[in-house]
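Title: Request for sanity check on tRNA(Ile)-lysidine synthase prediction

Description:
We are preparing a figure and want to confirm that the structure record we downloaded matches what your pipeline produces today. Could someone re-run it with the sequence below and paste the raw structure tokens into this thread? We only need the token string, no images.
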Amino acid sequence: MPSLMLKSKFLDFISEHNLFSEHDKLLVGVSGGIDSMVLLHLLVNSGFNVGVSHCNFNLRGEESDADEQFVRYHCLMNGIPIHTIAFDTKQYALENGLSIQVAARELRYNYFDEICKEHKYSHIAIAHNLNDSVETVLLNLARGTGLKGLTGIKPVNGKIIRPLLFATRSQIADYAKENNISFREDSSNASTKYKRNFIRHKVMPLLRELNPSADYSIYNTAQHLNEAQILVERQLAQIQEDLISVNDDKVLIDIEKLLKESAGNYFLVNFLATYGFTPFQAAEAYKLTASSPGSRVESESHVVYRDRSYLILQHKQLQNDDVGVTIAANDTFIESPVKLSINIVDYTEGYTLEKDMNVANLDFQKLKFPLTIRKWKPGDRFVPFGMKGFKKVSDFLVDNKVPLADKNNVYVLTTAGEIAWVIGYRIDNRFSLSESSNKIFKIKLLVSN
């Protein structure tokens, strides 16, 4: 593509997507590679007000330092404001449990935000191109994704704009050659140990054998899917309004309505993605609709757990499993972390006890209120009904062949620090009824049919 034609398409793309106005001040992320150097050249030669930001991630030794010096020199010779920083990316990744790629991205964009605030830049221009978008689609497809993951890279994401997204690498290379634009080669781009490079060097050449225009075909398909995604999001918003309610710090998802919704599973995948759940985790969360109360699925930040009528979404920091939920003597119903109904009944002659593991018949006089519901923990012990000696809860669960997945969701009812009931399994013998008992504290675990 001739230089003038690429510049014309560049300006058209900016106008079509309303990326910025001629009065805006742009911060351009420049690595020194061909894409970012061409982007900088196009912006400067189009008369836009720009500054440059360069991040030295110290991942390639002298090569990284040489990139920084190259960008510094270019900006100095052309009178372009420049902001640079050096990171210990490996240490940051180690301290935060991140991959090198994720750590570098996080460091870069955090720095960009700081520079924008300090120097009043309105937008951050990044040099992603058409091929980058195509590779993103294929990467997401290989990993497993929903519709959104197949829409590619967006021209606008908040302050971040991508004015080169319409251009292929070959078009960018032609422009650089025609305009004598110097740039630095990143040696890591040739390595196929990185997933994106594997797509670039191994997968795309094979797809081009099937279709020489594979890049454009995939890119255009992604644009169509992006339009479809807009329609889908409108429908998902309507479903969300019907299914979701909020109670204090909890998000309640109506199970009955979710199961009736034909796109319920797809809705949940999209809804929970906002809270850090992967598609697989979201699919597991959907399965909670057929599980017992207390079952849960967790992302890094949030948990979804099942009660009788709802899937409840909550931030982990707001979960009260460790401190416990209290029960007063006059409470009749507990919603969370497990759903319980409570009755105090007279223990009279001829009264028939309900024999069900989900029902605890406790001697009201032996209990000290408030009671507490919490998850069992290592070291907990109690006297199982029918026995005289103490037994560790962990051993009791093993003896009763409770699956590991269910063990993690076992709760206990305590009184004055002592376990009165391993909920849904066995009461403690010390709080059972006797001939002298006159009132029953009857508490029932409500489970779905």
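Thanks, this matches our download. The chain has three domains: 3-223, 248-318, 325-445.
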